[in-house]
Design goal:
elongated, SH3 type barrels, single chain, 32% strand, alpha+beta
Length: 147
């Protein structure tokens, strides 16, 4: 592996790794291990790696198994362009509400993943749903999204 490629992978890992679909993360681990080994042999780049710090946000990042499972399913729905059912509790609500959604994209901001989606009854109005902390349950309908 070239030093420049190794440095690129290590830097990309710091900035982008949590944004990748979980199956991609697993497949990249071998390449990342090789990149870390390559950089450790080059003194200047090893120094750079230790001196570069990426600060993501103020809230600690937690990646429990349930959140990881939902994230994988949400990413699958977005990539496959399939409708989903989602039980979601809004920030100011007492109870969760069930929605049928057209998932369009994922936004990663610091430690939060947001689903960009439209409700079936308002397909021209995109909304954000905090994927990790407010979902009661989530299923894929296997019906193509409506745009």
């Amino acid at each position: 592996m070239q030093l420049s490629e190794a440095l690129f992978l290590v830097l990309a890992e710091k900035f982008l790794f949590r944004s990748l679909p979980p199956e991609s993360q697993k497949s990249l681990e071998l390449r990342l291990n090789k990149a870390h080994k390559t950089i450790s042999k080059a003194n200047a780049l090893e120094q750079w790696q230790r001196k570069l710090h990426v600060i993501g946000g103020q809230i600690p990042y937690h990646n429990d198994e349930l959140v990881a499972e939902w994230r994988q399913t949400i990413y699958q729905a977005v990539l496959s362009e399939l409708q989903i059912n989602l039980k979601y509790k809004k920030l100011d609500a007492d109870k969760a509400t069930e929605y049928q959604l057209n998932p369009l994209a994922i936004i990663v901001r610091e430690h939060s993943h947001y689903l960009v989606a439209t409700k079936l009854e308002t397909p021209d109005k995109s909304q954000l749903f905090n994927c990790m902390h407010r979902i009661g349950y989530f299923t894929i309908n296997y019906i193509p999204i409506k745009s």
